[in-house]
Design a protein that fits this description.
By secondary structure, the protein is mainly α. It has 15 helices and no strands. Helix content is 78%, strand content 0%.
Length: 467
Amino acid sequence: MNTSNNRPESPAGPPGPPGRVRRDLTQGSILKNLMILSWPILVTQLMMTLGPTIDTIWVGRLGETAIAAVGVAGTAVMLVMGLMMGFTMGMLALLSRAIGAGDNHMASRIAQQSIVFSAIFAFVIALVGQFLGQKILLLITQDPGIVELGTIYLRIEFLGGATMVFRMTMDTIMQSSGDTFNPMWIAAVYRVIHIILCPFMIFGWWIFPELGVAGAAWTAVIAQGIGVILGLRVLFSERSRVRVSFKDFKFDPVILWRIIRIGIPASIGGIQRSLSQFILQVLMAPFGPAALAAHVIAQRIEMFFFMPAMSFGNGAGVLAGQNLGAGKPERAEKGAWLAVAILEAFIVVVIIIMLVWTKPIVNIFNSEPGLEAIAIQYIRIAAVGWIMMGFMFALMNTMQSAGDTTMMMIFSILDTWLVTILLAWLLPRYTDLGVLGIRWAMSASVIVGGLINVFYFRTGRWKKKKV
């Protein structure tokens, strides 16, 4: 792949639309480019988070067992998403470098193979969900109510996994080209549909059947399916910078292998993070449904505040990939540090808000006294670790987008097993913290992960990575 400053014109079809979608991220103000990339990603991420949060609010009306069931099943879904997100990192690394080098023809070929890979992946997870769904949940908890409801939710989510996988792939293709606006409006459309449809499907309002927990899962599948249709329309039209066409399609095992080679370490890293949540729920289960339900509520709240960190991290990653493709590593590094500065300022404000208004925010989800008290403690403990969140997300995404996924995988494994899981097992047993020890382990993991990423980023090795 050409990564010099002599950037060839694309031989592939007519140019995409003018304006922001065509913005050259390898030139001009780094801060402006970062902001233009990141704020639409932020809106997109908020829309993505809104769906599960709305599900939790409505399912909360069905009781703590229903909340725990959706949360436990959601952990298994996150495990699959963590695996797929690793492969989308491989796609992003290749696509952003091709765009940065000006090779739009290669970018189109990479996009084709990415869609083929997604189809195969979606088929596999659909089978896993149908045949192993209940067994997966039994690894977490033996509570019959949670397992029964969680299995229903999980099987539907995995059966509709194609919509989730294709949506992630299409977002990656568009965002890696610098087009963060199309994914934003698509996410807004399908999430509005999700929000409106959810209570109708759960409680059987109007002409809809009363499906309970299953209604929340079907709502997610239907809404994301609409998002996939809208995304395909963009990618197969002139509105996308990366024009996808299967007119002269050829299966390209070389490109597929490059996606997998870069993606496997990132996937393992993603699985480690999701697996840690899975194991943490296993460790929490003996403390009862209230402890699990409070954990789910705390996670939903945290997800909203993690979104800016993830968004600016993704923006810094796209910026890094394109600038490395154009042979400008110094711009890639500066973009990452700017993202860190913005995020850390934001996180300080978030911590203040959460410490002052924890109770009213928790009560949005559930106001049962026992559940509320545990959730409030969880969030206040989590706030200790948030201070390193900006460093972790911005620097990690930059290095992964540069294709340096192997070291990120190693760091993730060490952080997961030697910090998160080890402390989560030790603290409840050998201190008086009880279930709160598990949340302290999670905070410690964020702090350690952030420090490790800072140290490795400063070595500059990621800038020399070949993809």
